[in-house]
User: Fold this.
Amino acid sequence: MFDSSPDQSTIVIEDICSNCKKDVSIQITPTSGGFGLLGGALFENAAGGYYARCAVCYGHNPKEG
Assistant:
């Protein structure tokens, strides 16, 4: 994600939660160990794309993507 926008320190993803269908805004920042996400979680799907989960739904079941 940051490869296509190397000048950005934060990327914001606006999406719909795949579980509860509410709007979700996820802020992604690079860290020394990878990436930090604030506001939810992103999961990779089988086609190589991503889908979002809001922080509440992710908190209830973090292992289920």
